[in-house]
Design a protein that fits this description.
498 residues, transmembrane helix, elongated, Hypothetical Protein, Haloacid Dehalogenase-like Hydrolase, Chain: A, domain 2, Multidrug efflux transporter AcrB transmembrane fold, alpha+beta, 3 domains, Gyrase A, domain 2, four-stranded antiparallel beta sheet, Protein translocase subunit SecD
């Protein structure tokens, strides 16, 4: 009797804690219930590989010239690098130097005086994986700054990314923030003209032509930037000398030192501030600049706010292609919630009638256990900060069915023991003891399955797995452990009928 009392006190404490959590910490609703934006993205791998070849080509050119090899040119292509050399006798040494310096390449002679350098297949696969991982990390940082509750940024397959923003309905702003590479670059201006054709005559392999932000002017600039987005320490909203919105930025210490040296050597020349391959402004360097700068360009307050956010959270490794975009209105989720509540109430009433009609006062005990199961599940979702989705609701319904099944299994076994002539108290003990292994196996199997689904599934599957895992633990606690406590309590007072 004393153990039953302690268990009932523990039940009341657990009940009060669960109610407190459920009341004071609401469950986050997913995209399908709250409305919001869903996107499927794919990084531009071909462009990323091309940039990697360009970076590697510059490194190869510098390395071979430092070792005094007679190199004519090092040219980067979309899928290879060509190294042109003068002396045939230097070929083995050049090839060995490249293989020792860069482990991720293959070197092959393409003709007299030409070597072809390519990345290995293993390296390209790892590069793709790293691009997806880095993209997911940057996007999560950006979305966190937006203040979206419980966003989903996860991998879809090997090469795609799913982004879900519950409660966020501004699709254009979402595309601007998510799709921006934040590729800030500061490049020395060689020349400028309103006509691109004039600059093409001066174009070399170390320069490129970029348009201005308004498309009215063209700039011939160095390909290699002095400072890039990865060198930024922070970015913030400010105003220019005329009071117009602008973005201020601060450089990391190493980049600040390099930038200070560069600006001191190029006073009087123009410096292009390049965003997304467009020149937003090209001021003249008047004096030495070290760790701070400002980006101006007729920005609106909203553009400045988003640009500073994007620059603060880091640059994407490559541009993103939006394969699918979808806006889910809040009315759809509202209808789903209302219909779900109605269906849940109707289903529970029918369940209550059937269980009580079948198992009498034991059915009342089962009903209390199922209600406790639902409360524990809801409190668990709220306490862990999990997001409830439509698949998650399906997980809750499945969990309720398993809870009923556990009670039915135990009650039927107790009735069998009663038919064998055992007393009510003994029938309860034997019924639980002889069904516990089956109930235990069921719950463990469900828990393992839900963990596997959570580990390898995407957004909706994770929602289903989360509710199923929390519900399985809650079910064992309420419908197995406390259900027996309730039966013992009723039996000791002579109120139990099965």
């Amino acid at each position: 009797m004393r153990n039953t009392t302690y268990n009932l006190i523990g039940f009341l404490v657990l009940l009060l804690l669960s109610i407190s959590v459920a009341v004071y910490k609401p469950v986050n609703l997913g995209l399908d219930l709250k409305g919001g934006i869903s996107m499927v993205l794919e990084p531009d791998y071909s462009r990323a590989v091309e940039h990697e070849y360009e970076r590697t080509a510059r490194f190869i050119d510098k390395t071979l010239r430092e070792k005094n090899f007679r190199i004519l040119d090092v040219t980067a292509h979309k899928d290879s690098i060509e190294v042109e050399y003068l002396e045939e006798r230097e070929l083995p040494s050049i090839a060995n130097t490249l293989r020792e310096t860069l482990k991720e390449i293959t070197v092959e002679q393409m003709g007299e005086g030409i070597l072809s350098v390519k990345f290995t297949g293993v390296y390209l696969e790892q590069l793709k994986k790293d691009i997806v991982d880095q993209t997911i990390e940057v996007l999560r940082n950006r979305i966190d700054k937006l203040g979206v509750a419980q966003p989903v940024v996860t991998r879809l397959g090997k090469e795609r990314i799913v982004v879900e923003l519950p409660g966020f309905l501004d699709i254009e702003r979402a595309k601007r923030i998510i799709g921006s590479t934040a590729s800030l670059e500061l490049k020395l201006v060689v020349d400028s003209s309103p006509l691109r054709e004039e600059l093409e005559k001066k174009l070399t392999k170390n320069t490129e032509i970029l348009p201005s932000r308004d498309g009215k002017e063209w700039f011939l600039v160095d390909k290699v930037p002095v400072v890039s987005g990865s060198d930024l320490k922070t970015a913030y909203i400010t105003k220019d000398e005329f009071g117009a919105p602008a973005v201020g930025f601060e450089l990391k210490s190493e980049a600040a030192s390099k930038f200070g040296e560069f600006t001191s050597q190029n006073i009087g020349k123009r410096l292009a501030i390049v965003l997304e391959d467009r020149v937003v402004s090209a001021p003249v360097i008047r004096s030495r600049i070290s760790d701070r700068g400002q980006i101006t360009g007729n920005f609106t307050p909203d553009e400045v706010r988003d640009l500073s956010l994007i620059l603060r959270t880091g640059a994407l490794p490559t541009s993103l292609n939006i394969l699918q975009e979808k806006v889910v209105g809040p009315s759809l989720g509202k209808d789903a919630i209302e219909q779900g509540i109605k269906a849940g109430i109707l289903g529970f009433i029918l369940l209550l009638v059937i269980v009580i009609a079948r198992y009498k006062s034991a059915g009342v005990s089962a009903t209390v256990s199922i209600l406790m199961n639902g409360l524990l599940l809801w409190a668990g979702l709220a306490g862990l900060g999990a997001t409830l989705t439509l698949p998650g609701i399906a997980g809750i319904i499945l969990n309720m069915g398993i809870a009923v099944d556990s009670n039915v299994l135990i009650f039927e076994r107790v009735k069998e023991e009663l038919r064998l002539g055992n007393t009510l108290r003994k029938a309860i003990e034997l019924g639980y003891r002889r069904t516990l292994s089956a109930v235990w196996d069921t719950h463990i199997t469900l828990l393992v399955a839900s963990l596997i689904l959570f580990q390898f599934g995407s957004g909706p599957v994770k929602g289903f797995a989360t509710t199923l895992a929390i519900g399985t633990i809650a079910s064992f606690l309420s419908n197995v452990y406390y259900a027996k406590v309730f039966l013992d309590f009723l039996a000791k007072r002579g109120w139990l009928k099965v």
